[in-house]
């Protein structure tokens, strides 16, 4: 069992080293992460400008799924952490132009719940 886990980790390391060693693949991977983060961020800010609908309505169910379960749930957390890890990897490789948006986007995704409450209270 432990040997299988070690083999999977080694395979993952070799795949990641292939991705990050090729500049074209690294750029595409980085742009994909940035695009995914931007999509989640836009979804969060779009939901932030809408006040919370009344409980029991159809709009509340959609809001609950989009904001509470996706953006503030494990998917949003994983996307935020993934973006920050990728930004850190790019910073280590001296690719600051990719690192800064990834780190900022990851931080915004991870604080999306407070942003939705604050912007919802303002608007």
Could you describe the 3D structure shown?
With 123 residues, this protein is an all-alpha fold. It has one domain (22-122). Helix content is 85%, strand content 0%. It is built from 6 helices and no strands. Helix 2 packs parallel to helix 5 and helix 2 (23-48) runs parallel beside helix 6. The N and C termini lie far apart (54 Å). The relative contact order is 0.14.
SSE order and pairing:
Blueprint (H helix, E strand, L loop, with lengths): L1 H20 L1 H26 L9 H14 L2 H19 L3 H15 L1 H11 L1
Average the pLDDT over all residues and give the rounded result: 78
Q: What proportion of the residues form beta strands (DSSP E)?
A: under 5%
Radius of gyration: 18 Å
Q: How many discrete domains?
A: 1
H and E order: HHHHHH
Oligomer status = single chain
By DSSP, the count of extended strands is: 0
Describe the structure concisely.
It contains six helices and no strands. It is an all-alpha fold.
Descriptive terms for the model:
123 residues; mainly alpha; 0% strand; single chain
